[in-house]
Amino acid sequence: MNGAPRADEAALELEGVSVAYGATWALRDVSLRLGPGEVVGLAGPNGSGKSTLLAAAAGLLGPAEGSVRIGGSDLRRQRPATRARRVAWMPQEEPPGDNVPLRDYVEYGRYAWSDRWLPPSGADRAATDRALTETDLLGLVGRGIGELSGGERQRARLARVLAQETAYLLLDEPTAYLDIGHQLDVLERIRSFAHRERRGVLLALHDLNLAARFTDRIAVLARGRVVADGPPTEILSPGLLGEVWGIAAEVRRDPTSGLPYLLPQLFERTPSRPSAAVPRRVHVVAGGGSGAALLRSLLEHGFAASAGVLPLFDTDTELAHDLGVPTAVELPFAPIAAETLGQLDRLLDAAEAVIVAPFPVGPTNLANLERLAAWVGRRPTFLLDQPAGVRWDFTDGRATAVRDELQRRGAASGAGVEAAIAWLGRLPSVSPPA
To answer: What integer is the mean pLDDT of 16-34?
Structure first.
């Protein structure tokens, strides 16, 4: 393999790296080492500097202080093609482009190795096939990139990075837009690939339980600095969770693997029924980022909000915490416990309306919808339409059946946050005070 690291391949090292955007420091004196075949998870709250660190490690951002080196060679001093043969970067987001065939899209990762004036070589085609196989996309090569689902496009982006065949891979939220099953599948593939092919992988992850399960080390960022770096068994602690994320969590050990996993403690906020002097409360059922725009819009329009049940470290969970929204929280990928469902009932009882965001539903969070069956007649309920063409029901149709039942019992529905806000405005007892 062209880009496979040798047994003596030097580590990728950040030494005292500081990066500023104008007068604001995004990274401050960060030192981090990534060795061949090592998988390091990069964790931290939103705005802690994870994406900036990855871009700096790829040589795309010039640090104001410090350096990024491989074997003593400064990446910023290397030609772009040379750098691209050693380090591959997958950004968190990417603007949609033309609907090119999937194989051509993945083959873009070969530009650093190819003569741009010649057709793809046999080595290029072989590397592309290997990347498509690694990401379970070989059966979709007849489609265009724009015809794939969000999760399939995310795996195609990963395949393009793998086709680049570099010694080091820098991945920013590689599990974004993936359902629960594909999150586990992709992370297992990344770990197996890194260990088998001796590739170093640095990947940003929000979910610490996934990081503990699939990485060799976790580096934790807070306010642009590395505050912890080591094996998951050594660094994950209630103190770290409280200091960095501002939450309480119990750390337990998986009896089979010995790996740590986190159980969140219930938030201590006890919501009370709104009075006429405060904004009316709306409970939001969401997950995976589906409730972000809705929560912000509710607060902007003068409503109070609650949310849940949400997984710990979920994008919606972090946003709700940042906004001060009371939230029922559960361990990711775990069935919703009876105690947590009891907290959900208390939030629903304190609310005067319920809005269900278009979140993906699997066996572990199906109870979020099922619980609403007892409340739809007692609280006005609005179901935001699921996006057309995007799979969201991972329960063999049970979630679809529950949504249909909620509508039969009187739940309204519509497309977009604006429709939900307009619906609330037509409910006199729920409208916020003028």
So the answer is: 89
